[in-house]
Amino acid sequence: PLRLHILPHIGDIPIEDINSKHIERALKPIWNKKQETARKCLDRLNYVLKYALAGNLKIDVRAVENARALLGVQDDIPVNIASMPWQEVPKFYKSLSDNIMSNLALRFLILTGLRTDAVRHANINWIEGDIMTVPAEFNKGQKFTKEPFRVPLSQEAIKVIKLCPVDQNGIIFRGHGTQYISDSSMSKFMRENGYEGRAKPHGFRSSLRTWISDCTETSHDVAEMMLGHKVGNKVENAYKRTDHLEKRRVLSKKWSNFVLTN
Predict the structure, then answer these.
(1) Strand order across the beta sheet in which 127-128 lies
(2) What is the model's pLDDT at position 80?
(3) Which pairs count as long-range contacts for 164-171, CB under 8 Å and 24+ apart, including other chains?
(4) Which member of 22, 24, 159, 171 has the lowest number of beta carbons within 10 Å of its beta carbon?
(5) 3-state DSSP call for residue 84?
(6) Can you tell me the distance from the alpha carbon of 216 to that of 218, in angstroms, rounded to the nearest whole number?
(7) Could you give the 3-state DSSP secondary structure of residue 81?
(8) Side-chain half-sphere exposure of 184, counting CA atoms within 13 A
């Protein structure tokens, strides 16, 4: 968010000179169009300014707060990420036949239901047998409450990994000239094949979740755990410490078979 929406506008301004008007002008174009991204920009810019303050730089400590006030209340209309109906996923999966890195990453994302960030940073050292343990920093959740997440891998998911030329650092999906494959490279295929506005990589998590509800007798807790969602309150989770791995392993195989055979 900072690289795309803040630095192009104020990246050349000395940090001690940045004020709320600079920040307002930078974020005004996306304030209502990309609400969550705009909020992330403000939060992360605030971290940068506080770091500068800790380094004894004379910065405007209220710049972010005042910019938020200048930008006003967002048109808080929730917009769901475009997702593909689960009935169309097998056909789309088969269209990813070229073993280029972006297509392999998309196939792995579809099979596992992982978030795009976890797929992009996937490392061979996370895998033991048919279990991938995603580190806490790639799992969504409140700060200091994230936990590593075990993901059962189907035979097809393991096959996809074996098709990747894993580098010396263990990175599975490596981008051109960069350490990790970019988020945009995964969505490029979808745009070029007529899915613009209809489906996005992250939306395959919704496709999987809807398939689970429509086509299986899976309990709510297991279905939510397939996507790495927290279930239950703090008291319940203090006693119930299972991640339903074996049930999710069975479900992962069923989803893989559906995708491959339909």
Answers:
(1) 127-128, 131-134, 149-152
(2) 65
(3) 164/101, 164/104, 166/124, 169/123, 170/123, 170/124, 170/125, 171/121, 171/122, 171/123, 171/124
(4) 159
(5) coil
(6) 5
(7) coil
(8) 2
